[in-house]
Amino acid sequence: MQVVPRRLSFFVMIFFSDSLLAGKVALITGGGTGLGLAMARAFGAVGAKLVIASRSSEHVEEGAETLRAAGIEILPLVCDVRDPDQVETMVGTAVGHFGRVDVLVNNAAGNFLVRAEDLSPGGWKAVTRIVLDGSWFCSQAVYRCMKEQGAGNILNILATYATGAGTLTVHSAAAKAGVLALTRTLAVEWADAGIRVNAIAPGPVDTQGAGSRLWASDEARASIAEKLPMGRFGTEAEIAVVATFLVSDAASYVTGTMLPVDGGLTLGKGHLASIEAVEHLLRPRD
Ligand code: NAP
Q1: Number of helices (H) and strands (E), helices first, in the chain?
Q2: Confidence of residue 63 (pLDDT cuts 50, 70, 90)
Q3: How many other CB atoms are found less than 10 A from the CB of residue 1?
Q4: Which of 129, 187, 270, 279 has the CB geometry, 3.0–4.6 Å to 255, for a possible disulfide?
Q5: DSSP secondary-structure letter at 214?
Q6: For residue range 247-259, what is the model confidence (pLDDT) as tens digits?
Q7: What are the structural domains, with CATH classification, of the chain?
Q8: pTM (global) more than 0.70
Q9: How far are the Cα atoms of 89, 97, 116, 182 from residue 174, in angstroms, in the given order?
């Protein structure tokens, strides 16, 4: 039977030492909900101190509450990543509080389904400003601190359509592809400052945010699962565990890469008919 890891603390405990990120400070944008909160919980479970930031004080306060209950030291901050001044203040406050920032996860995003021909200039701007501008402002803001420390890690949360095609999400696909370019360019340009820059492209994970905006029905969910070679959605734990690896010293020689964590979605199911449909054509073993 296939194992589907869901219980994050159990999952992290099995694979990593509980001091893997001891002494490190991680700043996660959009860290109060969904995948951001799962990554915060995973990093905290292996010793990191956390800063989580997003627009809604409710999101970050509620997220912080659940992490504190797990014994994690955490600073929740309100910040709109579209505004470079707010981003500077967020990073300054994090450094003032914890003395350093070792890890930045550019996870904040907005998305909605729309036919490309119907997308308004405002809709295009809303998504590209959060995803592309926001990731850039945050990366540039942590650079100075990481350079001074002589080390740092930036992890960008993309989507599989950063390299493939994202039907009904041209705004998000273009923005995520831009962040992939940031990932590669900054990995090369900032390598001599000791900064690694990587990305994860998650497949579908049924978070409250993504679910409500991108599928929102059992029928839509089933039609997505049908396209996946592994035939199922990922779990928050499966993304968080890979993120933990990438921002840790276990990945010390990994930079400029995008790792799909997608149940095979990026590869697709192959171009021929399903095996069941061509069973009669299969040659038996000699
Ligand atoms: P989510 O819970 O809706 O996460 C989005 C987060 O971004 C929220 O916490 C939101 O908080 C924050 N945010 C939005 N606009 C912001 C802004 N201007 N400034 C600061 N924070 C902002 O959805 P999720 O599924 O966990 O998605 C997390 C990441 O995974 C995103 O980058 C998404 O593109 C990526 N991803 C998810 C899936 C999936 O299937 N779940 C698949 C591929 C990629 P506020 O509303 O409080 O600002």
Answers
A1: 10, 7
A2: very high
A3: 3
A4: 187
A5: I
A6: 999 999 999 999 9
A7: 8-281 (3.40.50.720)
A8: yes
A9: 28, 35, 12, 12
For residue range 134-189, what is the model confidence (pLDDT) as tens digits? 999 999 999 999 999 999 999 999 999 999 987 999 999 999 999 999 999 999 99
CA 185, 91, 194, 258 torsion: positive or negative?
A: negative
Atom of ligand 1 nearest to the CA of 158: 44
Q: Phi and psi for 285 in degrees, rounded to 5? A: -60, 135
What's the 173 CA to ligand 1 centre distance in angstroms? 14
- Work out which ligand 1 atom sits closest to the CA atom of 56: 47
Residue 143, CA distances (Å) to 77, 177, 255 in order: 19, 21, 16
pLDDT at 58 over 60: yes
> Could you tell me the distance, in angstroms and rounded to a whole number, from the CA of residue 2 to the centre of ligand 1?
28
Q: Give distance in angstroms: CA of 107 to centre of ligand 1.
A: 6
Percent helix, strand and coil across the chain, each rounded to 5? 50, 15, 35
Confidence of residue 224 (pLDDT cuts 50, 70, 90): very high
Size (the chain), residues: 286
- Those residues with Cβ within 8 angstroms of residue 281's Cβ, 6 or more apart along the chain or in another chain: none
72-89 pLDDT, tens digit each: 999 999 999 999 999 999
Nearest by Cα to 23 from 7, 44, 41: 44
